[in-house]
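Dear colleague,

Following up on Tuesday's group meeting, I ran the structure prediction for the three-component complex that the binding team flagged. I've pasted the input sequences exactly as they went in, so you can double-check that nothing got truncated or mislabelled along the way. The structure tokens for the whole assembly follow below. Feel free to forward this to whoever is handling the docking comparison.

Inputs:
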Amino acid sequence: MIKRMLTLIAVLAVVAASCGGGDDSASAADCGVDEVDGDLNFYNWSEYIDPDLLTAFQDQYGVTVTESFYDSNETMLSQIQGGVSYDLIVPSDYMVAIMIEEGLLIELNKDAIPNFENMDPQFTSQPYDNGAKYSAAYQYGTTGLGVNLAATGEDVPHSWALIFDPELTANFPGGVSVLNDPRETMGAALEYLGYSLNDTNLDHLAEATEVIKKAKANIATFDSDQYDEALVAGEVAVAQGYSGNMIVSIGEADNPDDFIYILPEEGATLWIDNMAVPTNSQSVCTAHTFINFLLDAENGAALTNWNYYGSPNAASVPFLDQEVVDFYADTASAKTEVIESQGDYEINYTDALAEAKS
Amino acid sequence: MPTDVDQVDPAQTVVTPELERDAERAQARRGLLIAAPSWLYLTLFFAIPLVIVFVYSFASRSSTGLTVLENWNLHSYRRLFDPLVAEIAFRSFVLAVATTLICLIASYPLAYYMATRPPRYRNILIILVMIPFWSNFLVRTYAWRVLLGSDGPISQISQALGGEPIRILFTNTAVLIGLVYGFLPFMVLPLFAALDRMDWSLIEAGRDLYANGRRAFLKITLPLSMPGVIAGSILVFIPTLGAYVTPAILGGARTTLLGDYIVSQFLSARNQPFGSALSVAVMSIMLLATVIYFRRGARTL
Amino acid sequence: MSQGTLTTARAEGALASLSWLVFAFLYAPIVVLAVLSFNENNNVGIWTNFSFKWYGEMFQNAAVMNALKNSLIVAVVSTSVSTVLGTATAVALERFRFRGQRVYDGLVYLPIIIPDVTMAVMMLLFFAQAFRMISGLGPHLNFGLSTISLSHIAFSISFVAVVVRAKLGQLDPALDEAAADLYAGRWMAFRKVTLPLIAPAVAGGALLALTISLDDVVVTSFVAGPGSTTLPVYVFGLVRRGVTPLINAVSVVMLTASMVLVAISLVFQRDRGAKTSTAEE
């Protein structure tokens, strides 16, 4: 028994010793334009790219693209940290910051991505990766409110009050749906109070917790998945959610004119998914070529016309479906913020949401 | 029922202590041999990985959410005494107890019915119980959303009878229905296994003896099926305690549950030390409870 | 006696109706799920028109087909291995006394008790570390179907063991002894007497293992590798864009296939039954 314990401790020591490592210094890749150096392992969200685009890339460059899928940034991060080897990943904004800080991404070689100039400058100067050294924006969207005007009445304030003001929501048949995500949910409450969604003052967070507690009687569900369906099916009157799902579901409703998607005037979340190459990629140049391929004007438009998110590719605008263009037209002028990773303080958002719900 | 199997038959010729010891030793060797492959497997692919969790529970979290294997401390364990944790644990416990009881009540007649069918139908019936669960979990749960929603059949029946539309979705009832549904096979299978190929002549005898079906059931069938009841309740109770997807989809995640809380520590808060400490605590308590429950169950036989 | 029969008949009727009620409960969402697979709308929950479109698209969707294939491979491998190991575990724990048995006894329950996300994280860290150590020796291993299967086996063994153990605990061990005398060998005795008696439990354990493997998302998504996404992981990844009735269509095809298999095995069983009875005549 004792011998066994000793063996375990020995194993542990090894585990502990080698876990601290991972200080691969990230430097720009040495790749030429259109260079490929192997097949591409693409780690992406499910159904986030038109399969025809993948086929086109495979045909053009003679490499195989293997797609794998994840359901959250955190799962993806764990896998990359665990050393699973992928060539191209699609992390969201705050996750890019975390991965850069942990040295998990290589610096992109812009010489190998001439199409980078197609990128709308708004997306190369974001706080999570200022100058877009490590990442290239893939698609973007907003977090706002879907409203069933038939249930709420035509005249609604463009405000988070639609989900947080109990006097208002009490009149909504079915109640409202709020996201079940510490940063988004607490962020909306903070914005409702007039603070930034990146606010790191504990007193403000406590106020935000109170807002949710008071609103809870009329919050039918905390839901990050099915809010769009619940809204369109008439199960809830107002739903906080992501623009892409809202546009698709509203478009498919029996009576699309009853529904609107609004960005609250207090401020809404702008989120950006980005392409990035992990340090343990086996085909760095193929990854660069693929990024360049997607930043092409027509390919970029094909990407967006297929999944209905916003396109950061300025050159692709002439090729976009009018519906998508209209939907994102007011995003540029609206007051939006990108969620920033807040290090140790992140724990407080998680606790605040747990507290608000208990 | 004696659990010690290796008693040498007293009817056997002369049993010297030496022979007995030899037999015991041979027996122990054989037992170890049978156990060895899975022993090794679970040690390599479960026990050793588990040590990582244990070690992490004493580690600290870096500001980006990395686990730093230095500055060993008990912070994470101290946080377990936060009243929020107790509240969350209690809520999950109540839900798990309710789910287990309902599962038991719903499963017993079904298992009994299946076990008393002719052998040929028995296998079919048990597979029919399982087939629904080979569909995708998420679309199965979404189907429940349709059934329990305000446009669902239950609501429509109520409206047809002149009543109000009923929305069960986003209530505690919906959570219970979803959990009972999801874990029913975990109760039915062990119960069925225990009841199947039972010595029915015993029950016949019991019926003659007690001249009353109910008493025969309480005195003979139920005690005989006890190992199935115990195994089933463990297989339902424990996973329910950590369930979070069904409660979120059907109940609207309006309260935090234990599984939910642990997941959020590992994922959104990226606080592996606290997540590990929570897991270690839950596992220790549950293991203790399970072992005691099993021992007591064995004794009542 | 006549009164006794009457009560039994009534009890039997009540039992039957209760059972079919539970069956109705089990299949109610399945019926909804199947109906919705013919929904033309992109949203599962909003009915527009009847259509076969998702069945057509399903076979065109390479990602879904690949995920389905991966799921089936993992399910078959993990179920067969864990059924053997789990049954051996149950027999060893219930029928033998050996050193370290208590520790083993506790260890067997832990995979059921452990929260799935905790297991997911620890398996990932474990494999990552193991691979790093092995790659120092030469061979380069990567995550994939193998790591998924190994992890599924680790938790399935316990489910099989608990179910089989419950059955063994109910049987009289003296039966083994008698059989051992009769067949002059422990193994033969086990095969001829114990195994048939515990067969329903072994089958039940295997069915549980299969079901759990087919449903697992968290552990799988952590230990997966390039190209080894399983169906549940794929579907959970979809929630961001909305789950389409295509997944319902996949489920309906899987359910129909299982039912057909069951029906075929029923026919075969009946055939074999008929043959043996003729042979006996």
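Residues 1-56 of chain B form one domain.

Cheers,
M.
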